[in-house]
Amino acid sequence: MRRLTLTRRELNLVIISLVFTAVCVLGDFHVTAEESQTPVNTPAPSQTPSPQRPEPVSRKIEGDWEGYLAAGGTKLKLVLHVIKKDSALRATLDSPDQGATGLPVDSITLESGSVVFEMNSLGARYEGELSKDDSQIEGKWMQGGQTFPLILKSMRAPTVGAPAPETPLKLQKIDLGGRGLNLLIGGQRSAGTPVVILEGGFGAGIASWSAIQRNIASFAQVVSYDRAGVGQSDPGPKPRDAKTLAAELHAALVKADIKPPYVLVGHSLGGPYIRVFAGMYPTEVSGMVLIDPSQEAFNTYLKLNPPPNLKEEEAKVAKAPQGVRDEYEAVEATYEQAQNAKVPAGVPVILLTATQDSGMPAEARRVWAEKHKEWIAKVPGGKQIVAEKSGHFIQAQDPELVIAAIKEVMEKQKRSAP
Question: What is the pLDDT of residue 167?
Fold first, then answer.
């Protein structure tokens, strides 16, 4: 039953993360689209010519446009590049938070101030209105049957075809026996400092860490990734339970030459995932931060108190991408594995609990927080922090709190090191 609650809370983010990671296109690809031109009226000959209508103002969208797509508590930065060549508009889209550039825009038009562009490979469409001073486009992003507001603001001169700006985050595809696993890696590692590994919630990956990964990269090496079958990563073998995911992540880190120790950070279902990873590789883990994590004890509560919209949630899962459905099918096994996993001795653990979750009934939220308290009390030296102003996506709604928890764990690890 907890699987359904997870779906309700995180499906919106899953869809958005897939919008920009379903196709990995890092080169320029341009499809032209004719820009509509408004004819100029010429007065008919007469003895007393009528006043000529004013010539229409030429509207322009050539240039770079920046905006933030908000969904599920996460803001994803987007940059649209538009140029005009031979009277045709061409465009590409960047998602810097995911290390993706040059995503193909198949068509883009400007007509009487209305801007429309489509990305057919993603089943996505944007419709917006250009402001009178051509400084911003206010519109909506549509994909997967859902609509999200998106305002694009003008930046500088066009840079389509120019090298992407330097970023502290680099996307790297790791080959695992013919299957690609996408890692977004940033920051520099100093001697004695652990690597921060970010594990997303149900069906989520790189995009869910866009609010904090760059900041973490300023003081540590940090890795987020799309699990197999999610985002830009290729599908993986079933079952997609926590042990399978942990083994794949570990293999990818080894192949990318990202050596332990690791500070594991898991959001929601990512909490059980990192607990299982720590149990499988205890000598390689130096700290853990669990962000409003799912709990097997709460799953037991839901079995006795099933949500009223059970069929609706099942219908949502049935429409999700295959990789997401595979994770859903293995959730019960994941909870069992997490229950049997042991937290490595002496490892500092911080658990963050959200309080402002409108998507969960008050009684369920009370039990959710109670189960957090019971679990962390069993961890020697464990610490619980209540996020008073945040909902489930604490890393997006209160990023400073999450970053402070990561730094605290790293500092505790440093003091305890021999």
Answer: 52
Cβ neighbors of 57 (< 8 A, separation 6 or more) are none
Measured distance CA(172)–CA(163) in Å, rounded: 18
Q: Are 36 and 111 in contact (CB under 8 A)?
A: yes
How many beta carbons lie within 10 A of that of residue 306, not counting itself? 11
Coil vs helix vs strand at 342: coil
Among residues 289, 303, 299, 301, which one has the least CA distance to residue 376?
Answer: 289
- Indicate the pairing of strand 33-34 with strand 262-267: unpaired
Peptide bond into 293 cis (omega under 30): no
* Mean pLDDT computed over every residue of the chain: 82
Strand 88-95 vs strand 114-119: parallel, antiparallel, or unpaired? unpaired
Checking DSSP bridges between strand 383-387 and strand 349-354, what pairing results, if any? parallel
For residues 261-280, give the mean pLDDT.
Answer: 97
φ/ψ of 31, rounded to 5, equals: -120, 125
Q: Name beta bridge partners: 40.
A: none
Residue 127 has pLDDT above 50, yes or no: yes
Tokens coding 72: 């599920």
Listed residue (366, 374, 372) closest to 353, CA to CA? 372
On whether the CB atoms of residues 160 and 32 are closer than 8 A, the answer is no
Contact 258, 181 (CB under 8 A): no
Cis check for the bond before 348: say yes or no (omega within 30 of 0): no
Calculate the alpha carbon distances from 260 to 137, 221, 239 in Å. Answer: 46, 11, 26
What is residue 77's DSSP assignment? E
**pLDDT of residue 189 exceeding 90:** no
Closest CA to 91 of 129, 123, 118: 118
Alpha carbon distance, N-terminus to C-terminus of the chain:
44
Helices 296-304 and 331-340, axial angle in degrees (round to 10)? 130
* Greater model confidence, 415 or 258: 258
**Least confident interval from 40-49, 215-224, 267-276, 401-410:** 40-49
The whole-model pTM stands at: 0.72
pLDDT of residue 58: 67
Q: pLDDT of 7-40, one tens digit each?
A: 334 433 333 333 333 322 222 222 222 223 333 3
DSSP reduced 3-state for 189: coil
